[in-house]
Amino acid sequence: METKVLIVGAGPSGLATSACLSRHSIPHLILEREDCYASLWKKRTYDRLGLHLAKEFCFLPHKALPSDAPTFMPKDFFLKYVDDYVSQFNINPLYHRTVESASLVEAGRKWRIEAKNTLEGNVEVYHAEFLVVASGENNEGYIPDVKGLSSFPGEIVHSNHFKSGSRYKSKDVLVIGCGNSGMEIAYDLKDHGARTSIVIRSPFHVLTKELVHRGMSLLNYLPVYMVDTLITMLARLKFGDLTKYGIYRPPRGPFAHKNVTGRSPVIDVGTIGKIQNGEIEVVPEILNIERNNVKFKNGTEKNFDAIVLATGYKSAANKWLKDYKYALNGDGMPKNRMPNHWRGEKGLYCAGLSRRGLFGVSMDAEAIANDINKVITSQK
Question: I need a labelling partner for 216 at 20 to 30 A (CA). Which of 109, 110, 331, 379 fits?
């Protein structure tokens, strides 16, 4: 099948790119391996999830949020907005299509994409002048190499399959990972009566969503170092000294740290309070696991009934994108630095891999569609 543009992935990045291409009347197709769009949001998020960033940073191109949108949207409110977005722009992804390979053909003038139709069992072949990787930075759950993890007889669940702490009441649960998902899951587990411990290895910033909102707004007027100084001071006033609980701040401020490493600050949902009053136990790096017994590097050990791996995700685009070198590095992330991270060579683009959330998704989608339109116009 021939098309001008082929988009891999029907998450927010793919949907936004589709809408922007439609505004230019550019024909395109979306291939999606799941049975719905926005599958990460619809099928692989925990029940209590809400958007941590304020609404002015969480909309898609060419469609404003409803006037009654709360400053911080719950998941269901955002998904209703996405449903309306898909309807408004008449976006129709081809579902149950798992892309198995994509490579340059015809002396580098076109992309050949092979996708398995998992409903019918056959492989379909597509040709496109432009290829957009929109499969997401959260495409595949990352499983760390923890010594003895395979010997653990209890339940091991990655955060992308975690729904609620209700099934873990009165159980000893270890959360591995202290990013936003890990901290929020730890809170949810304790809230449902689990005896909860969380592994904290690396330094990170802890802010409230209001502080993040204030900081992101101030960045429009002040340099990063000034905003970081103010927000860090306010965070210290809010949370006090967290080092006594095993939580350390990085040397850079929260927004500079995000710019350099791509790692966002942890937005507290109440977890810090539970750590401070002893309801959630902080434990250091794991030494090894022997069945239910987990030994930590400080010499302590404890038995657990379940382990939640809140260890993040990784891009899996390099597994199927044979000529990824034209846009991506060895980790499946953009090889070019911002602000040109979205543009590759030979008609290859990547959307939603900037680690800037929905705000970055919108910027990528518009930039990609405008660039493709410019190329097509120049060919006439």
Answer: 331
How far is it, in rounded angstroms, from Cα 295 to Cα 1?
A: 55
**Integer CA distances (angstroms), 116 to 95, 113, 201, 320, 349, in order:** 10, 10, 40, 12, 22
User: Is residue 274 within 8 Å of 280, Cβ to Cβ?
Assistant: yes
Q: Per-residue pLDDT tens for 127-181?
A: 999 999 999 776 677 888 899 999 999 999 999 889 899 999 999 999 999 999 9
Backbone angles phi, psi at 143, to 5 degrees: -110, 115
Q: Residues with Cβ < 8 Å from 131, sequence gap 6 or more?
A: 5, 6, 8, 102, 111, 113, 347, 348, 349
Q: Is 55 exposed, middle or buried (0-12, 13-18, 19+ CB in 10 A)?
A: buried
Cβ neighbours of 195 (radius 10 Å): 19
Alpha-helix runs per DSSP H in 240-309? 254-261, 271-276
Element housing 86 (H / E): helix 75-88
Residue 175: which region, alpha, beta or left (left: phi > 0; alpha: psi -120 to 50)?
Answer: beta
Cα four-point dihedral sign 170, 171, 174, 175:
negative
User: How does DSSP classify residue 178?
Assistant: -
Q: Which two tokens stand for residue 161?
A: 């399959």
Give the tokens for residue 342. Answer: 């979205």
Q: Using CA atoms, how far apart are residues 116 and 125, in angstroms rounded to an integer?
A: 9
Tokens 């993890």 identify what position?
149
State which amino acid sits at residue 194. Answer: A
pLDDT of residue 247: 96
For residue 170, how many other CB atoms are within 10 A of its CB?
Answer: 9
CA-to-CA distance for 164 and 52, rounded, in angstroms?
18
How many CA atoms, within 13 angstroms, populate the side-chain half-sphere of residue 252? 13
Q: What is the pLDDT of residue 48?
A: 74
At 85, the pLDDT band (50, 70, 90 cuts) reads very high
User: Which stretch of DSSP H or E encloses residue 136?
Assistant: none
Which residue, 372, 374, 377, is CA-closest to 128? Answer: 372
CA distance 266 to 196: 18
Name the residue type at position 253. G
Strand, helix or coil for residue 132 = strand
